[in-house]
């Protein structure tokens, strides 16, 4: 299957690692490995110190699977959960397994490109696009009714949403599940930002836990701040489908990195402390970010995120957002992500506010606005 260029990864690979500040990062501030090891209990520390660098179980380390299943409370950690090398491998394996040639898929967009382009290349998709109004970004899920066809196989959602930080309500999710149940449709739920809701009361349940045809995607990258581990996972009640998806992994990574699995286990066992640290960073940065965009509301339009560590403001000037981002990068060494990468043509751009150096990024952005006589 020939897929198009992955625009987001292509764009960032040429810029992210060659800049002073990544102001569009989609993950939390990364941890030092030594800080994670310090959190290990004696039993897991003993496993770490005596770990052999050998092949691992394709589904994932049994201890890791059991720890993950504490989240989902499914019947079997070994039949209902499978780990992968990052979320991307999980997306690729799942969508290629579930979708057949004549299946129709509904995708909420904008989104991480593979969530749209893999099903689009397999057969046919319908996009439910986000709306922007009065400082808010939101999806009107009532429109899903009109998009369903007789051959609709799958609905793909992502909350908290990338790139906007939007959320739906629990009632909206329940209505979507009831509609999907009525038509026998799978729901693939990208939940990689779960845990970073600004109001804990807005946190949605795991789709895999409440819907028999629900698939939950998780990863150590985003809300945990450990993208270098390259550990993702899928959870679902449908054992047969998960078995078929896990079989595709045999053609991909086969198994995970042994050290990464143990580091992930330690992190998950200390999830509460990690979440507390991450939310503390987010809360401080979000105050600064909102103040900045309020101060410069002639230049930008701010859309309040409800979760995650990313937002999708808009440049109001008569300038190409792509060019604006390039000039900022060249002049100040700061990388923003233009909305063009998400096929958004309305001058939106993605900012990330999960890193400790975000305040410095705002200082440089402000300096750039003055130097370009845009203020």
Descriptive tags:
16 strands, 15 helices, 17% strand, 375 residues, alpha/beta, three-stranded antiparallel beta sheet, seven-stranded mixed beta sheet, 41% helix
How large is the share of residues in beta strands? Answer: 15-25%
Mean pLDDT: 97
- What is the β-strand count? 16
Sheet/helix structural class? alpha/beta
The helix content, as a percent range, equals 40-55%
Structure in a nutshell:
With 375 residues, the protein is of the alpha/beta class. It has 15 helices and 16 strands. Helix 6 packs parallel to helix 7 (113-122) and helix 6 (86-98) crosses helix 11.
Structure description:
This protein has 15 helices and 16 strands. It has 375 residues and is an alpha/beta fold. The strands form 5 sheets. Strands 2-10-9-8-7-3-4 form a 7-stranded mixed β-sheet, with helices on both faces. A 3-stranded antiparallel β-sheet has the order 12-16-15. A two-stranded parallel sheet has the order 1-14. Helix 4 (62-72) runs parallel beside helix 12 (258-269) and helix 6 (86-98) packs parallel to helix 7.
SSE layout and pairings?
Layout: H1 7-13, E1 21-22, H2 33-37, H3 42-49, H4 62-72, H5 77-80, E2 81-85, H6 86-98, E3 104-109, H7 113-122, E4 124-129, E5 131-133, E6 136-138, H8 144-147, E7 152-158, H9 170-183, E8 186-190, H10 207-210, E9 214-219, E10 231-236, H11 239-249, H12 258-269, H13 271-295, E11 300-301, E12 310-311, E13 314-315, H14 321-332, E14 334-335, E15 337-338, E16 349-352, H15 358-371
Parallel strand pairs: 1-14, 3-4, 3-7, 7-8, 8-9
Antiparallel strand pairs: 2-10, 5-6, 9-10, 11-13, 12-16, 15-16
């Amino acid at each position: 299957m020939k897929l198009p260029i992955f625009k987001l990864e292509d764009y960032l690979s040429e810029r992210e690692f060659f800049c002073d500040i990544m102001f569009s990062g989609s993950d939390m501030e990364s941890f030092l490995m030594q800080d994670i090891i310090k959190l290990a209990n004696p039993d897991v520390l003993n496993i770490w110190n005596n770990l052999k660098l050998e092949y691992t179980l394709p589904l994932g380390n049994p201890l890791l699977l059991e720890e993950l299943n504490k989240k989902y409370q499914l019947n079997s950690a070994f039949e209902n959960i499978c780990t992968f090398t990052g979320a991307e491998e999980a997306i690729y394996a799942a969508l290629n397994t579930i979708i057949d040639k004549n299946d129709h898929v509904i995708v909420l967009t904008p989104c991480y490109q593979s969530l749209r382009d893999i099903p689009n290349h397999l057969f046919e998709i319908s996009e439910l696009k986000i709306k922007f109004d009065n400082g808010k970004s939101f999806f009107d899920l009532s429109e899903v009714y009109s998009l369903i066809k007789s051959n609709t196989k799958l609905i793909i959602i992502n909350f908290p949403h990338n790139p906007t930080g939007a959320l739906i309500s629990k009632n909206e999710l329940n209505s979507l599940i009831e509609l999907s149940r009525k038509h026998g449709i799978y729901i693939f739920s990208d939940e990689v930002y779960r845990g970073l809701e600004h109001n804990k009361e807005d946190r949605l349940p795991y789709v895999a836990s409440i819907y028999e045809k629900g698939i939950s995607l998780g990863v150590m990258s985003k809300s945990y701040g450990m993208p270098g581990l390259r550990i993702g996972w899928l959870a679902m009640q449908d054992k047969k489908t998960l078995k078929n998806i896990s079989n595709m992994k045999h053609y991909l990574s086969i198994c995970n990195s042994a050290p990464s699995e143990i580091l992930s286990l330690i992190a998950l066992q200390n999830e509460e402390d990690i979440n507390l640290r991450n939310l503390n960073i987010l809360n401080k940065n979000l105050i600064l970010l909102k103040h900045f965009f309020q101060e410069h509301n002639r230049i930008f339009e701010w859309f309040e995120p409800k979760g995650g560590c990313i937002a999708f403001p808009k440049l109001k000037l008569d300038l190409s957002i792509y060019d604006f981002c390039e000039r900022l990068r060249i002049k100040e060494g700061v990388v923003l992500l233009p909305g063009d990468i998400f096929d958004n043509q309305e001058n939106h751009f993605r900012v990330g506010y999960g890193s400790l150096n975000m305040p410095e990024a705002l200082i440089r952005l402000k300096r750039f606005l003055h130097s370009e006589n845009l203020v």
